[in-house]
From TrEMBL:
Keyword annotations of the record: Oxidoreductase
EC number: 1.1.1.-
InterPro entries: NAD(P)-bd_dom_sf, PRISE-like_Rossmann-fold
SUPFAM superfamilies, per the entry: NAD(P)-binding Rossmann-fold domains
Domain of life of the organism encoding this protein: Bacteria
Protein name, UniProt field: SDR family oxidoreductase
Boundaries of every PRISE-like Rossmann-fold domain copy: 56-355
Gene3D superfamilies: NAD(P)-binding Rossmann-like Domain
Residues annotated as transmembrane: none
């Protein structure tokens, strides 16, 4: 059977890396995004708005995928709005494909907020989860758009007879400009501004994050797990955590990031120092750097998502993940976290995103 993939969110960090992995493995690969044209060799680009059912059906009229990978989401002002919008996106997409009866498997990418709560809810609720985070831990009682996305997939699977997998990465490290949750690029931009202005690279987070253990997810490892789950019968109808396979402490990785950029650093000094506040008003600095170094992206908001980096690094607990479900079934991909960051920084420099 020909393997035909539809990557929803192909212009984002996860979707872009997944599309590359699928094409490299010989899949016929369609990439759906709302507005971006993706010049990736071998990718069949589709533009459609997931919130416009009629336009979506029209865009997918000639597409008959065997596997669908949902890697995108939309941020709204409240979690209830997040739930309504992101559930509708999943529902509209699967409804548009239902009559084709070609879909065999759907992979959904969510994240660790499945266990931690939506964005900063775990900070204010007073209820902190046990770590390492384990796939069998139950849903929280608080509203969460990840749960709504899952429920839409489960309902469509019951209706249409396909299998599913859910993938819960920690902070994803990879190359994508304009991504809503991009710690790697945000730190690279912050470090570049520090170097430009002779400022110290100040850790913005909590004592628990500075001293505690953590892990992250390389976008390539996530892509490999998505493809593995789609092709492994034993992995059907299962949720999987996914991380690099190593752990680190920010108290030594922060220093190494500073050394990569050849700048001075300041660690945790008794209080959280939000990066949003540190980078406030730095748009003009960035515009000057764009002109001086011929950088490719002048929109500061597209290269910096400080709000999300602050949420990750201000957590009051150390956070790392257990990967029992996929490890027991034979998924053993691994990435060195130090190199995940350094390879990204080198690529950003080569692409003229940072000087």
């Amino acid at each position: 059977m020909e393997k035909i993939a539809l990557v929803v969110g192909s212009s984002g960090m996860t979707g872009n890396n997944l599309a590359k992995e699928l094409i490299a493995q010989g899949w016929k690969t369609y990439g759906l995004s709302r507005s971006s044209k993706n010049p990736m060799k071998g990718l069949i680009d589709i533009q459609a708005d997931l919130l416009n059912p009629s336009a979506l059906r029209e865009a997918l009229a000639d597409v008959r995928p065997t596997h669908v990978f949902l890697t995108t989401w939309m941020r709204r002002n409240t979690e209830q709005e997040n739930i309504q919008t992101n559930a509708a996106m999943v529902r509209n997409l699967l409804d548009a494909l239902a009559t084709k009866q070609t879909v065999k498997h759907v992979g959904l990418v969510t994240g660790l907020k499945h266990y931690l709560g939506p964005f900063d809810a775990y900070v204010t609720s007073g209820v902190l989860p046990e770590t390492p985070l384990r796939e069998e831990q139950p849903r929280l009682s608080s509203p969460n758009f990840y749960y709504a996305q899952e429920d839409e997939v489960y309902a469509a699977a019951d209706r249409d007879g396909f299998t599913w997998s859910v993938h819960r990465p920690h902070t994803v490290i990879g190359n994508a400009v304009g991504n809503l949750m991009n710690m790697g690029t945000t730190l690279a931009v912050y470090a570049s501004i520090c170097k430009e202005r002779g400022l110290p690279f100040v850790f913005p987070g909590s004592e628990a994050q500075w001293n505690g253990l953590s892990d992250v997810t390389d976008a390539q490892v996530l892509a490999q797990q998505l493809v593995w789950a789609a092709e492994t019968p034993e992995a059907a109808n299962t949720a999987f955590n996914v991380a690099n396979g190593d752990v680190f402490r920010w108290r030594w990785l922060w220093k190494e990031v500073a050394q990569w950029f050849d700048i001075e650093y300041v660690g945790y000094e008794g209080e959280i120092k939000p990066l949003v506040k540190t980078l406030e008003g730095k748009e003009q600095v960035w515009k000057e750097m764009v002109l001086r170094y011929g950088l490719a992206e002048a929109d500061f908001d597209k290269v910096s998502s400080a709000w999300h980096t602050d949420l990750d690094l201000s957590r009051p607990i150390e956070v790392m993940t257990d990967m029992t479900n996929s490890r027991m079934l034979g998924f053993h991909a691994y990435a060195n976290t130090r190199m995940s960051f350094f390879n990204l920084f080198a690529q950003l420099r080569a692409d003229k995103i940072i000087p």
